[in-house]
Here is the input.
Amino acid sequence: MPTIYSIGQLSKLTDCKIPTIRYYEDIGLLPAASRSLGNQRRYHGEHLQRLSFIRHSRALGFSLQEIKQLIHLQHCANHSPHEAHGIARQHLSDVQSKIAKLRALENELSNIVDCCHAGDSVHCKVLDSLN
Here is the structure.
């Protein structure tokens, strides 16, 4: 007999908040749960696997739209699963671009902080450099 999870159990197993699980279900990332006689959501192993996939993808920084595409590629016979490589490659490129921008920001802030002389009560180099 397959394991059945309440939304609370699924939340604990995946470290995903209950409103987020409901949201993923509402937008179609997570299949709709079955319902108990008391109308409570009931989740199965497929839900656990899918939610784990979503959580891992989010931790890697993939957008919900990218995750939706990746899930589609997992189950669609009309597309090559290698299309996922293109999505991951583009995401990696975006991450590398953000890292380069953050390094430039770090260098600029480091230069501003390094040129500040705390003893100069008349001029603040930080404020001067921001003008």
Remarks:
- The first helix runs from residue 7 to 14.
